[in-house]
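// run 5 | inverse folding | seed 20
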């Protein structure tokens, strides 16, 4: 099971998420209390990255979501997740924001990549009218955000069992990020990676991810320690400048 951590800067609203899925809308979260925001309530993103999706190569990428495998045009990437994967959380984040997820190791399939969330990098989050919980897929903030997928998997790395791989990927490996797995009970144990994002144009299969090394690798013994009390661990994703 993968859930939003309600102690984090991003908040999971199950009621709003259900409504969004029923209406064919995307689900999007920001920090603070959940409150629906009307279309056009936030200013469009003007950063080079957020408005620059169309300037990347026109070669489509394959959707890494389990069971999908559709080739998706770069310009249609956000729309694809908004309508084809409505259960996948979409979070608007600024640079250096920390997004938290509660991850159960058993929820990460063996040798299969699982999408955990779609982050949309924006210039700023205008929360004067209340923080966003659910937003229609035609909203300008969804269209202007720069998409970053958070993914995970388990991979057998030795006789001790399967390690957990956790990573973030954008269109062309254009960003830097930190992914950290931390125990909930004492927060004294952690494993982290800080460096370049993965590229969605590259193979997202777990063995290929491990070989390239742009991910957090949590070995079986450490998984047991991190999940000893709560049955899961806190995954923090932070996109850097």
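// decoded
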């Amino acid at each position: 099971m993968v859930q939003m951590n309600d102690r984090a800067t991003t908040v999971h609203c199950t009621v709003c998420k259900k409504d969004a899925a029923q209406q064919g809308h995307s689900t999007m979260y920001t920090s603070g209390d959940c409150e629906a925001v009307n279309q056009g309530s936030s200013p469009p993103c003007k950063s080079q990255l957020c408005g620059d999706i169309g300037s990347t190569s026109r070669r489509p990428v394959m959707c890494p979501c389990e069971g999908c495998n559709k080739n998706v045009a770069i310009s249609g990437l956000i729309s694809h997740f908004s309508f084809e994967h409505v259960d996948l959380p979409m979070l608007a984040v600024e640079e250096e924001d920390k997004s938290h997820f509660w991850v159960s190791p058993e929820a990460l399939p063996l040798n299969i990549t699982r999408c955990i969330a779609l982050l949309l990098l924006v210039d700023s989050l205008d929360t004067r009218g209340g923080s966003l919980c659910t937003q229609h897929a035609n909203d300008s903030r969804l269209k202007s955000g720069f998409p970053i997928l958070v993914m995970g998997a388990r991979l057998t790395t030795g006789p001790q069992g399967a390690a957990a791989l956790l990573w973030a990927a954008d269109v062309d490996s254009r960003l830097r990020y930190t992914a950290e797995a931390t125990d909930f009970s004492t927060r004294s144990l952690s494993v982290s990676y800080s460096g370049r994002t993965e590229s969605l144009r590259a193979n997202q299969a777990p063995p290929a991810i491990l070989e390239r090394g742009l991910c957090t690798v949590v070995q079986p013994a450490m998984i047991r320690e991190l999940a000893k009390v709560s049955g899961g661990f806190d995954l923090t994703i932070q996109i850097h400048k």
